[in-house]
Amino acid sequence: MSDPELKDALEDRRILVTGGAGFIGSEVVRQLHELEANATVFDNFSSGKMEYIRGLHDVKVVKGDVCDHEIVSKTLRDQELVIHLAALPFIPDCYHHPEEFFRVNAMGSVNMMWESIRSETVERFVHVSSSEVYGTARYVPMDEEHPTRPNSTYAVSKLAADRAVFAMHKEHSFPAVIVRPFNSYGPNVTQPYIIPEIALQLLSANDSVQLGDVENSRDFTYVADTARGLIMALANKNAVGETINLGTGRGIKIRDLVFLMAGFLGRQVRIERDPTRLRPYDVERLLCDCAKARKILRWEPKVTLEEGLRKTIEWMVNNPIRFRGPFKGWYQSYYGKV
User: Fold this and answer.
1) Nearest to residue 242, comparing CAs of 288, 295, 300, 287?
2) Are residues 106 and 160 in the same domain?
3) Which residues pair with 285 in a beta bridge?
4) Closest by alpha carbon to 174, among 244, 231, 107, 119?
5) Phi, psi of 57 (to 5 degrees)
6) What range does the domain containing 30 cover?
7) Per-residue pLDDT for 338 more than 50?
8) pLDDT tens, 102-113?
9) Cα Rg, the chain, nearest whole Å
10) How confident is the model at residue 337 (pLDDT cuts 50, 70, 90)?
11) Which end of the chain is more exposed for a tag (fewer CB within 10 A), N or C?
12) 91 and 174 assigned to the same domain
C-alpha cells in the first residue's frame, strides 16, 4: 500500500499499540502519528522509554500490564484497531525466567486478543510474532509454511501466542493477522541485540569485539520497514486470517556484520570468542521469503543493510545508551557480570 492509501485507511482511526514505547513500537507510533491516526501507547515501561515517544503530540499513553484484565479491558473500550507488540523480547533472559516469558508473551497475548473480542469496538488485531518460531532454517528462503521448531523458551512462548491468536480468530470470526518480522534493527533500541551490541563495542576504545557464535546468519530488517509492514497489515483487509513474514531476503553472518560495521567507522578490529555470550541451542540461520508480504500488503523493504547500519550507528553516537533489562539477573545471564 502507498502512503496516501494508508492515510486514507487510518486517518483519525483509534489505534492501540501495546509496547508502543519500545523499539519497534515507538517507530510504529511515530508512523501512525504521521498518518494522522489517533494512537494510544500501552506499555509497562520495563524496557520501553518515554523519551522515544516524547514530542508526538496527541498520542495518549497508558501504563499497564498486558496480563491485567481490568486495565486492558478499560483501555480497549474505545479503540478500533490494535497492534500487539508488547512482549519480553530478549532471549538470554528467557533461560532464567521461562515462566515469566510464558506469562507475558503467551497469556498476555491471549488476554489482549480476548479483551479485544469482548470490547465490541475493536475491528482488527495485528499480533506481532517472531521469525524465531521457525528455529534454524530447514530450507531457504523461509516462507510461512516453513516448519515451526522453536529453539528457545522465548520462541516457544511466541509460537504459543501465535496458535492461540489464530484459534481465537477462527472460533470467534474475529479479524486478526499474525506478522513474523525477521531480525529488526535501528534507532530507539531497548535491548542489547547483536547490532547495537557490536556498535557499542566498536564505539569503545577497544581493538577487539567480544562475541559468542559469529558463524550464525541472520536476515536484518530496518525498523522503519518493519513498522511500515505492521501498519500495512492493520490497514489491508486481505491480510485478515493470514500469517505474513517481514524480511529482506538477504542474510549475513555475524562475523561479516562486524567487519562491515567496523568499516563504516574506519576501525580495524579482531573478533574474540567469549564463551559467556554463547546461547544454548541457538538458531544457526534465518533467511526470509517475503513474497507473501509483497503480494498481499504490497510491502517491500526500502532501506538497505548498509544504509540502515549507518543510520543506526549515527543514532547511537548521538544517543549514548545503557541497556537495562526487566530482570536483575540480566547482566549475569548475558555478560557474566554481577
Assistant:
1) 295
2) yes
3) 217
4) 119
5) -65, 145
6) 3-186+222-249+286-303
7) no
8) 999 999 999 999
9) 19
10) very low
11) C
12) yes
